[in-house]
Amino acid sequence: MQVTETNQDGLKREFKIVIDAKDIETKVESRLDEIAQQVRVPGFRPGKVPPQVMKQRFGDSVIGEILEKAVTDSANQAMAERDMRPAMEPKIEIQDYKVGADLEYTIAVELMPDFEPMDFAKIEIERLTTEVTDSEIDQAMDEIASRQKQNKSLEKPRKSGNGDVVVLDFVGTIDGKEFSGGTAEDHYLELGSNSFIPGFEDQLVGKAAGDDVVVKIAFPEDYGNEELSGKAAEFNVTIKEIRETVQVDIDEEFSQANGFDSLAAMKTTVRETLQGNYDTIARNRVKRVLLDMLAKGHDFDVPEGMVVLEFDIIWEQIEKARKEGQLDPEDAAKSEDEMRAEYRDIAARRVRLGLLLSEVGRRNDIVVSDQEINQAVAAEAQKHPGHEQEVMEIYKKNPVAKDNLRAPIFENKVVDFILELAQISDRKVTPEELVKADEEVEQAKPAGKKSAKKAPSKKKAATAKAPEKAAAAKPPAKKAPKKKA
Known about the structure:
Elements: E1 2-9, E2 12-19, H1 21-36, H2 51-81, E3 91-94, E4 103-110, E5 124-129, H3 134-147, E6 150-153, E7 165-174, E8 177-190, E9 212-218, E10 232-246, H4 252-257, H5 263-297, H6 304-323, H7 329-332, H8 336-363, H9 370-382, H10 388-397, H11 399-421, E11 423-428, H12 431-443
Parallel strand pairs: 5-11
Antiparallel strand pairs: 1-2, 2-4, 3-4, 6-10, 7-8, 7-10, 9-10
Helix pairs in contact: 1-2, 3-5, 5-12, 6-8, 8-11, 9-10, 9-11, 10-11
C-alpha cells in the first residue's frame, strides 16, 4: 500500500492511496476459496469446484466485496499510522478500476482540532439565588383560580361589559369573501381577555343579547398567517347570550377539586413549582455565562464540514420561520448575505463549544449511563399524559431518538464538572432581580440571538395537578399558535 499526502490545509488532509493489484488478486482468490467450501455447484462435489468456475460464477460480486473492504481497511490504517482523529466520515473517491490493475483512490478528511482546555479553576462566576415569597404564592393561586372561573346566565338582562362572557356566532370576511378560520358558532368569549385580535372585543362591550354587530378590524402586520396579515376584515357577529363570570373561592373545596388533600398541600406544591422555576432560571443563567466564558477563552480552528452541517440546521429553522411569518424583526431588516454571515459565526461557535465539551468529557471519563437515558425517557413520557406507554415504545424502538436525549444529558454533566472546578460565589436577590439578570444575559448572547428555549417566567406558576379547560372554538387569535416541540 502506497500512501501519498496530496494536500494539507488547516484541518483538511487529502491522500492518494494505491493498493497493488497482486494484493487485490490474492484476497479475491482467498475469498473465492472460502466460498467454494460452502456453496454447491451442479456437477461438482463441495469444496472441489475449480477456481475458474468459481471466478466465473462469483468473481464480480467477490471483487466488489474485496474492493470495499480493501478501501475501508487501508483508509483506517493510513489514518491510524498518522494518529489522525477524523471529525467526520472521510470522503473517498475511487478512480476507474479495471480487473488486474492497481486500486487507486483518494481520501479527503477533516481532523479533530488539537487544543488545550483553559484552566477552569480560574473561572469566576456569580450565581444568583432567590426564594419564593408568600405574596407570589397568593398570586399564583389567584391565577389558577382565575383560569378555572365559571360563568352563569344573568339573573336580570343587561348590556355586556368587560369580564362578561358573550356567547356568539360570527362570520369573517375580507373584501366580501369568507376566509378560513374566520367562522364559529356558539363561541364563548370573555370580554377583556385579549384572546382575539386587537379591537374585536372592544366593539362587543355595551351590547345586549340578540344584537347583531359588524366588527371591523385590521389584522396586525406581524400576524402569523401571511394571507391575513395587514388586511382589513369585517365580522358579522350575533350575540346570543351574555353570561357573568363567577370567581372561584380559594378554599379547601377548591384544592380538593384540583386533586390535593388540602389547601395547605396545594400551596406547598405551588411553592415547590415556583421555586423549581427560579432554580431553573438561576441554573440556566449560570450555564449561559459559563458557555460565554468558555467561548471567549478558546480560539481554535473547527472542521468546516461540521460548521456547514450546523449552519444548515440553523438556516432550515430560519427559512421555516420566514415561511410562517415568525422571522425575528432584527433578521427581517437584514440582507440575505448579512444573515448568512451572522448565523455562520453562530454555527462555528456552537461547533467549537461542542468540541470543547466533548474533549473535557473524554479526558475526564464523563459518560451518560443507560439508567440516565431511561430516566430521561420516563420524563419525556410523563409530558404526554395518557400516552406514556406509546412514548416509551417509540424510544425503545428508535435508537436515534434515545441518542437525541443523550447529548443534552452529557452537556449538562460536563457543565457541572466545570462548575465544580470554577470559583462560584452566591448572591441572594429578589425574584424580579433574578428574572431581569437572566434577561440581560439572554440579550447579550452572540449576535443578539436568543436561545430557542427560554426559562420559565416567574409570572407563570403552573401546577401539575391544576387542570385547565380548553376553549370550545378557535378564535381569530393575535398570532398564529406556536408549535410545541
